[in-house]
């Protein structure tokens, strides 16, 4: 298998973490600006969106990081990264969808302003509003982990923990005052105890 994408991408690191949990053998190729422009015919033939990551497994190519996580979980030993119980599986898929649709969009402006220092993202009110939205989403996660932890699928680690863990890592690396979220922080520490979690939630890649 090959993973096309730069390790500074949170979505690429989802895939790499899952592969390491599987003990899979894979190669990674740097794609994505500023390293290598994906808007070229070679890459667009694999992902017409011109975005990373792309997983290439033999003659099969797949894009969208959460879809790749599900594919890899089904490719691994049954139940290793995605529960076989229908209700538990549904809960894991619920959190994957929530991470992409609700959690990640909330942090956009704050991350661009405070972590990436991107020119033009300097409106204090917009930063505050982004942080407020982000905190509100994490309050939902805090309540869920407080009720049903230690992992998002219940008692077993899953691909939902990979996706949410990397999002939490971004929060924990934020150079700003943050609300105390004990259950979220405990979940984060549990993930850091996993070798793959420690590798892909490095302070160098928030």
From TrEMBL:
Residues 85-206 form the GST C-terminal domain. The keyword Transmembrane does not apply. Residues 1-80 form the GST N-terminal domain. The keyword Glycoprotein does not apply. GO terms for molecular function: transferase activity. InterPro entries: Glutathione-S-Trfase_C-like, Glutathione-S-Trfase_C_sf, Glutathione_S-Trfase, Glutathione_S-Trfase_N, Thioredoxin-like_sf. Keywords: Transferase. Belongs to the GST superfamily. This is Glutathione S-transferase. It comes from Devosia chinhatensis.
């Amino acid at each position: 298998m090959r993973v096309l994408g730069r390790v500074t991408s949170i979505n690429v690191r989802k895939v790499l973490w899952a592969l390491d949990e599987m003990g899979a053998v894979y190669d990674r190729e740097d794609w994505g600006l500023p390293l290598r422009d994906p808007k070229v015919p070679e890459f667009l033939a694999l992902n017409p969106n011109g975005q990373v990551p792309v997983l290439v497994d033999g003659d099969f190519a797949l894009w969208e990081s959460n879809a790749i996580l599900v594919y890899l979980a089904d490719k691994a030993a049954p139940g290793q990264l995605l529960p076989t119980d229908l209700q538990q599986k549904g809960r894991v898929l619920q959190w994957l969808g929530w991470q992409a649709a609700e959690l990640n969009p909330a942090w956009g402006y704050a991350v661009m302003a405070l972590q990436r220092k991107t020119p033009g993202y300097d409106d204090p009110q917009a930063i505050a509003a982004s942080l407020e939205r982000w905190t509100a989403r994490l309050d939902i996660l805090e309540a869920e982990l407080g009720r049903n932890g230690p992992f998002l699928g219940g008692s077993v680690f899953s691909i939902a923990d990979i996706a949410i863990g990397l999002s939490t890592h971004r929060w924990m690396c934020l150079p700003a005052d943050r609300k105390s979220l004990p259950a979220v922080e405990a979940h984060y520490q549990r993930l850091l105890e996993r070798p793959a979690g420690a590798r892909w939630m490095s302070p160098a890649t928030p």
